[in-house]
Amino acid sequence: QLQASGGGLVQAGGSLRLSCAASGRTFSTYAMGWFRQAPGKEREFVISISRSGFSTSVVDSVKGRFSISRDNVKSTVILEMNSLKPEDTAVYYCAASFRRFDPPSLESEFAIWGQGTQVTVSS
Length: 123
Hints:
- By secondary structure, the chain is an all-beta fold.
- The protein is about 0% helix and about 50% strand.
- It has strands at about 1-5, 10, 15-20, 30-35, 45-50, 55-60, 65-70, 75-80, 90-95, 110-115, 115-120.
- Strands 2, 4, 5, 6, 9, 10 and 11 form a seven-stranded mixed beta sheet that branches.
- Strand 4 (about 30-35) and strand 5 form a beta hairpin.
- It is globular, with a radius of gyration of 13 Å.
- It starts with a strand and ends with a strand.
- About 35% of the residues are buried.
């Protein structure tokens, strides 16, 4: 199971930190990722991290602003979001993948999903 938290309302240019806590199977066997879904839009990939934490994949629209990290002891993945823009407003979902090496980026590669957490960026 995955439990996401940390969403909220922030002004443009601000920062937020999302957390996703995993329970059950050994956390280090999952690659982890974050997706988001804005109103009226399809869910889109944002960022992911490999099992080891050594590799990440990130969508161009958030490069340089968002980062992902993981703590395999605490079974937690963190999404740091800086320089937020109104277009970052969405429900953010964490997800787990059994992909072994490169960090996944396709929705179909993720097998377990957490509930979403709302991020709203005001202009």
